[in-house]
Specification:
Elements (H helix, E strand, L loop, with lengths): L7 E6 L3 H10 L5 E7 L3 H11 L3 E3 L2 H5 L6 E4 L6 H10 L3 E5 L6 H13 L4 E4 L6 H11 L9 E11 L17 H17 L5 E8 L5 E9 L5 E7 L1 E12 L3 E4 L20 E4 L9 E2 L7 H14 L3 H27 L3 E2 L1
Parallel strand pairs: 1-2, 1-4, 2-3, 4-5, 5-6, 7-10
Antiparallel strand pairs: 7-11, 8-9, 8-15, 9-10, 11-12, 12-13, 13-14
Length: 348
């Protein structure tokens, strides 16, 4: 519950395709108002605003950050630009909901959160599935808040990948913009691993297959934790769509697709699908899995509302909790990339 019912006025910093999906799904929220769109192409900003009923447009990012009519920004720019513009937004007193991955490495991510704290604003990395009710249920089975624990985690296997339909000119193929399967897709399974493990690994080992441009088309990694736990990660941009995770505890197992957006059935207008999560309460293979159901919806909407609630409540504890996970993700992504490039085990 919030302590301030005034809708958070969000400006969208850039008119990327993912920003259109965000605007479409968030438009009906009572927690946030999409107040502005900024694009370096003024005509593009006006077209975007007209499509989503946004009242104000800016022909530069700097002009929107300087506006007193904006409380916060949604940042969907290429990965390599996240740190620069998140820090500039903080310096202008704007809260930031930033697309994943937050920073290109641990140094960038730490600087982003330092700027947010210095200027007394809130920064949140937007993995839409993090804010799905299904993920709340998943964490309850890990933490025991739902009345049952799968037991201390022993192993996580998590994966996500897809086929990049039109690679020519796609920013995902540009190493200078933070492209590649690991940064674009691998951050998702790593974000689940980091959220569940609540720690960074102490050592990683990884292998990648690279495109001529230098980005990885697929990566697999093993993560070793100080207490003996293990995690395995796989990601790709050259295979059929796959997204799944297995969490193995001492007393049970959990399987999830951890979808960003989910629906009650397969007839959703945006192609959202039901998201499967199964729980086995026991150690034997004779114990049947039970299907866990949760409320469904757009992860963009859940994330925007959670962000607005955090800002309204000045919930520093929430930001700090997610900041720790985001920092673990950033340093681990960099270590995985280094291990794959050098063909060696990398200590964090």
């Amino acid at each position: 519950m919030t302590i301030n019912h005034k809708a958070l006025r969000i400006g969208i910093l850039g008119a990327a395709n993912i920003a259109r999906q965000f605007a479409r799904d968030v438009s009906g929220s009572e927690m946030v108002t999409l107040a502005a769109i900024a694009s370096r192409d003024g005509a593009k900003a006006k077209e975007f605003a007209g499509a989503f009923g946004i009242a104000q447009t800016f022909a530069s990012y700097e002009a929107m950050l300087a506006s007193a009519d904006i409380d916060a920004i949604y940042l969907p720019l290429p990965n390599s630009m996240h740190a620069t513009w998140a820090i500039k937004a903080a310096e202008h007193g704007k809260h930031v909901l930033c697309e994943k991955p937050l920073g290109m490495n641990g140094t960038e991510t730490a600087a982003m959160f330092a700027a947010a704290r210095r200027h007394k604003v809130f920064l949140l990395e937007s993995y839409p599935y993090w804010f799905q009710p299904q993920t709340t249920a998943m964490m309850s089975f890990i933490d025991g808040n739902g009345g049952y624990e799968i037991g201390p985690l022993r192993l996580i296997q998590a994966a996500f990948g897809f086929t990049l339909q039109k690679p020519d000119g796609n920013i995902r193929m540009n190493p200078d913009l933070g492209g590649g399967a690991l940064m674009d897709a691998g951050c998702y399974p790593l974000s689940l691993i980091s959220l569940a493990m609540r720690a960074a690994p102490v050592r990683v080992e990884a292998q990648s297959i690279y495109a001529p441009s230098g980005v990885d088309m697929s990566t697999m990694a093993t993560l070793h934790y100080a207490d003996g736990r293990r995690a395995q990660l796989a990601c790709a941009m050259d295979g059929a769509n796959f997204r799944q995770a297995l969490l193995v505890g001492a007393r049970g197992t959990l399987e999830t697709e951890y979808l960003n957006h989910c629906s009650e059935d397969v007839a959703h207008p945006h192609g959202y699908l039901p998201s499967l999560m199964r729980l086995r309460r026991g150690i034997a293979n004779s114990v049947p899995f039970e299907v866990i159901t949760s409320p469904s919806g757009s992860g963009f909407r859940f994330a925007a509302d959670a962000f607005a609630t955090m800002v309204a409540n000045r919930d520093q504890a929430m930001m700090d909790e997610y900041a720790a996970v985001s920092q673990n993700i950033a340093v681990t992504l960099a270590a995985i990339a280094q291990s794959a490039r050098e063909g060696t085990s990398v200590a964090l």
